[in-house]
Write a structure and sequence with these properties.
By secondary structure, the chain is of the alpha+beta class. It has three domains: about 220 residues, BirA Bifunctional Protein, domain 2 (2-Layer Sandwich); about 100 residues, no CATH class; about 110 residues, 3-Layer(aba) Sandwich (Rossmann fold), CATH 3.40.50.800. About 25% of the residues lie in helices and about 25% in strands. The strands form seven sheets. Strands 3, 7, 8, 9, 10, 11, 12, 19 and 22 form a nine-stranded mixed beta sheet that branches. The protein is globular.
Length: about 550
Amino acid sequence: MAAPIWKAARQPQTIRLPTREIWNARFIATDSRNRLSNFWAPTGGISPQDGEQDESHALLIRGGFLRQAHSGVFHLLPLGLRVQNKLEALIDKHMHSIGASKLSLSSITTEGLWRQSGRYSANSELLRIKDRRGSGFLLSPTHEEEITALVGGMVHSYKDLPLRLYQIGRKYRDERRPRQGLLRAKEFMMKDLYTFDHSSDAALSTYEAVREAYNNLFNELKLPYLVADADSGNMGGKLSHEYHFVSPKGEDNVWSCNSCAYVANEELVEKRAETTRSHDASSMVFTGISVDQKTAINIHIPPSSDIGSSKKQLWDHVSAHINLHAVKKALPRDIDIDTGIESSTLASLLPKTTQTIDLYDRSLSASTPTTTSTDLTIIKPHDPCPHCTDGTLHVQRAIEVGHTFHLGTRYSEPLNAVVASPDQNLSSPLHMGCHGIGVSRIIGAVASLLSDTNGVNWPRVIAPYEAILITSPSADETHVAEVYDALYGAGHVDLVLDDRVGKSLGWKLRDADLIGYPVVVVLGRGWKERGEVEVQCRRLGVKKEVGLEELRAEVLALLAQL
């Protein structure tokens, strides 16, 4: 009986699969062509869930790129993941150009490392977690401590340097008010490059190499960007630059000169010094208090024509006249001014202070030990540029998408990451740099910059697909395959075919605009009548009909401009 049973099991079975005659069924093709019938792209009909009317974020949701899971937390859908993967590939390309090796660090770090580096108490946006033993862990917003500890334990000689390591991974921040979609979230994707050299000169040379790689990367996006001198803040070090996309939705102010190449962020911007004058009874004084409430801080600036003649001014008006970033830099390192205190609270605390510091604007001559060479007044549009004689300053709102820091020995010294130096038997701390790119922020920023009422307009290099071929429901599949293969060629065009059943040609065109394919090719009436297809590029304002022989060259020419 065994043989007949075996033979029966070998009998072919008839399996009925959905066919195109079933109008509302999803048809799964098995050829090598990219087809939207095989791809999950749930577009339309959804609005953002965070209570904000952010049009570009709404377009990313309606276009099927992402969905919000919780406040400040998002799921990437297949279209969004394709954009992210292409951006990561672009980053990989330019990191490899400077000899950087890719790794993946754990998202979990310890409170102990952050205390050792001195950053634990200074960062109020850390996401803290405890295990069952009560051990203190953090979900990393950045990895300077971990990478320093890792390299410090494995690299012991200058002969192993320079070393350039980077990762692209998830970061976490206890954001108080998540907003603007991917631009200000609790969980986000970042690229972090960490560089290690044996000397300051070598580290500065590495820093310039990284800056060149960043410029090349942002140039490939073919979007205008600004590179601004920046303050290193809590990261440490004294040299850093920010990379910005100019956008009214940005939260940063970037100042630039209309005559020279001077660009600086709000913390570092300066204006050309005016003629020195003596500080007399006509100068204005704003009195603040230190964070520890022990020090009264008198800030002396020249009088202003748009404020009363009183020498003592109310603290409520300080932001209209005083550059508080400059004040913070002018103060001794162990004193930090409380910039958010209310005037009523300030008045009750000032009598209890135990010491007083006087800061004078650089335009006021003073012989006191607390005279500063810093301009303490606010920068205003059309103020004179500090780097040239003819230019004036203007300000733009911008979205920060990248930052480079020269750290020096800020982390290697407290974490004891040292190497044997070439000139002596003694060990010396590693000289470091850290360089970030906000992957999620770039996606959100590009959607903000390159969108209209119809949808997003992706740059070619990070578009989910470079081109889409759209057909009418009645199109002959043999002709569709012919046009697809002629355009796809040897694979130089990242092409997808919209062959979804039950969708009209008009619906597909609107959907293509919403998603933002750089080039749209339509197989419609022109093909039936003249053997021509319509080529559309919304960003360049192009709509023309071309024959099959010219199609590939026409599409590549358009993509080259995007």
